Amino acid sequence: MKLNHFQKKILFWLSLGLLVRFLLMPFLAHDDFFLVYGRVARALTGQANFLVYSQPLFHLFHGFGYGLARLFTPAKDLLDIFVNQNLTNPHSLKAIFLAKIPFVFFEYLSLWLLLKFFKKKDWLKVMIFWLFNPVNLYVLYGFGRFESAVVFILLWFFWLIKRQKLAWASLVFGFLILTRTFFIILIPLYFLLLGRSFKKKIKYLALEMAPFSLWYFYNQIWLIKPQLTSIFQEGKHGNYVFESQISLGQGQVIYLFFLGYVLIWLFVWFKERGKEKMFVLTDFLRYTFAVLILYYATSFFHPQYFAWVIPFLAFLVVKPDYKKMIWLLVFLFLPILLFWDNFTTLGLLTPVASFFNDFSLVNWLDKFFPAMKFLNLVRTFFSATGLYLLWLVFKEKDDAFKND
Amino acid sequence: MLSKMIKKLSLIIFLTFLFSLLSGFLPKDTQAMLLREKSLRESFFTKLIDEISLAPKQHLSQSIRLNYDAPLGIEILFRNPSEQKAEGLLRLRNDKLTLIEKEFFLESKSPAGFYFFAFPELKNAKGGEFWVEVTNLGSIPLTVGYYNQNVYHYGDLYLGKALQAGVLQFQIHYQINPLQKLSANLRAYLQKGWLFFSIWLVIIISMTVLVIIFGKNYRLKERKRDEPAQRKD
Question: Is 0.90 surpassed by the pTM of this model?
Fold first, then answer.
């Protein structure tokens, strides 16, 4: 088969991307990587039920990785690595490598789906951004989180929106919530965007909520210790959006994220929604992007959450006006990782040797400048860049995410 | 009629379950042995970890050197097989002063487990030598484990112990050099995981060759495309 020049270019970047990934994969992982695989191990060996975990689909997807690692690793060793987190086990690097293979698979699958939104002339730009932005590389292969599966479902949802298959899109979105509960926050927005009549809106809402509701009721009725209730009651990750607030005095506060969210929502309701208006892909992309950026700019987030916005940034990076800003934003993400000190930086090399856990970059930085002050300055810069980007996108309206 | 989307969805769900099932059949004895944390810890306790039963009022101590200015705390392994609550006191002290004192109790019939003691008050501790001291305050024996993981704190693990008869005192025999730790770790991987490394290296080399081949064509084509333009000039 003779490849033309364009195909060779594509293959070059694809294979370079794979090479970089394979180089990183066996040596880096965060505690959470083992934590999730530990849970999966328990579920797969009959010690727990997948459905007791919050975000059950996310855990279920890890079944791919566990199965793959199991094919080449004795069961006892695999459990020792993932359940006991014994990284001195001689099989550990191999198990980590194999457990990350599905991450690559879904990342490339997402890329394939993403390219379907673009014209051929933009493919290379999108590919280079997708394959070599530090966020994807860090989150998937450094930190070791399966966000490529989440992004794949998100892109699948947008693909169905593009084709105006709204019912199916709603159902897929329902599955997205089972992979990352955060996306439930988009439901009030999608209630405005999906469907023209009230009846249809209710139908789409029901489809969006169906998988989550089924899981929720299963948890409430059949399990002795419902996980979800405790998540809602105790807050934990779900509380991040409530942590940034402006105090009005006398105990009253305004939640920053929700302030912005309601503004976006009202804007869509009163300014955008005409009686006959059929919302198209660019609307969904623009407002979803707005909510995500607002979240990153105003709230505390775990590093892996930032991978969700990468497909949106890929839409913008092909436009010369946005290119530099996008690359700036993704590189500003890196110093933010120092907030967790060696836990999210050098400590990721613990699979190679526990030696790497012994350093504190923050203590070292403290010698030159108060580290936390520096990091918070970077965080402010990051938030400002995000909000500026948001303003540009709103200013341009339809053009920002258009590829014609 | 099934649409393409349903087919795709079904395929993904089917593959996920297939993998889940494939990886699910593990020997029952392995599951039982490794997955029940309590029994795992119990087995560690009886097989790998020695334990000391402190009589009432007895104490044991171990010296530690902290690697961070503000360590989070330490974890110590305890269990309480008796029917009554066991009570104890944990002290952190340097040569002269007791810096932190925390009383604790273990419920009756508590299985072996690591108990975390936070030291939020401790500042500027880096490099300092401290003593962790556990005293039995109750009327029944207090059971303390002292395997490698007996007393450790984040980022550092001290091995070795010297039990001095009578005073039940642990001391550090040696401190591991981080570079030795790194090289020992890497050596172990290379010795035991050589097969994986070989395969991984083959993959890396093949990918590199592929990248070079495609990259070479990439450049050649770019040059060829430029050439006519130069001639025209």
Answer: no
